[in-house]
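Worked Example 4.2. Consider the chain below.
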Amino acid sequence: MAAEIHSRPQSSRPVLLSKIEGHQDAVTAALLIPKEDGVITASEDRTIRVWLKRDSGQYWPSIYHTMASPCSAMAYHHDSRRIFVGQDNGAVMEFHVSEDFNKMNFIKTYPAHQNRVSAIIFSLATEYDFDTQYAFVGDYSGQITLLKLEQNTCSVITTLKGHEGSVACLWWDPIQRLLFSGASDNSIIMWDIGGRKGRTLLLQGHHDKVQSLCYLQLTRQLVSCSSDGGIAVWNMDVSREEAPQWLESDSCQKCEQPFFWNIKQMWDTKTLGLRQHHCRKCGQAVCGKCSSKRSSYPVMGFEFQVRVCDSCYDSIKDEDRTSLATFHEGKHNISHMSMDIARGLMVTCGTDRIVKIWDMTPVVGCSLATGFSPH
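Applying the procedure from the previous section yields the following structure tokens:
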């Protein structure tokens, strides 16, 4: 139940400061307590716990509460010291914690949903973005719905389509009006909502489901975590190119050989049809022979090697392959991540029942104290 403590050596990767163990099932949410050496966790073992750092340097549970149903989501508002916990049964429970974090009082149950609560955001009226009052909802189809919040209702503005798998996490930057989404297709998409031009940037570097996102406005960096333990830090302070839409054709747009469904051309030319592929750089429909090479192209978000046509491969210079992200191993399954941006700290948790606290300043920089934090 105690935490393992490590020193802070200088390095260019996240430094593991503490590891907290004690839950009996998957930890679904973990939040750092602002301005305190403490962590709040929620788990499928039906408990919510507050962990405080003791004089020994270890984190021990200060208080915990047992719920009627497994905990699936959580939000914490520090100024009012209110905790909101979503459950598998669709209910949201509200608690108030004492100033010394040694007592937790139940306030109210909100019978809000018919099924598992997947996310909670709490905001006082004075903290709303009055310019937009937007809310974003990602679903299992990979679609994101943009809602306009009114006083007692909401209306659908538009839907965003781009992911090929269920949306697992969203992050909204109200300064630049950018929306970031992560999904089970292992990709991240940046949607330029404020520009209203439909511009999207694709980021591909994870090898498993993207579970959590956090955008650092001051340093223009995006931190993402995936379920295989991958931690990525993306440099968003560079000029990036939008990935092209895939073109459709009945024949290869390079050699003009027919694809296998183009019966007429196959008959006329007495040739066998070929399988269709797409070049990730130009978007053209090409055959396997005309796209036999692979290359990374970070400026377009492709951090690992992807299929490109031969002409695009020849146009990519060595400096174009320079990575615009750093990748690190969390060495545990990650289902949720959150950051205390002001202190440069990150907490991760997952199905292995472990909570890890990281020092991210060697990776994202040390001048985060003046940065923007949306929490």
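The CA atoms of residues 344 and 361 lie 5 Å apart. The chain has a mean pLDDT of 88. Compare this with Example 4.1 before moving on.
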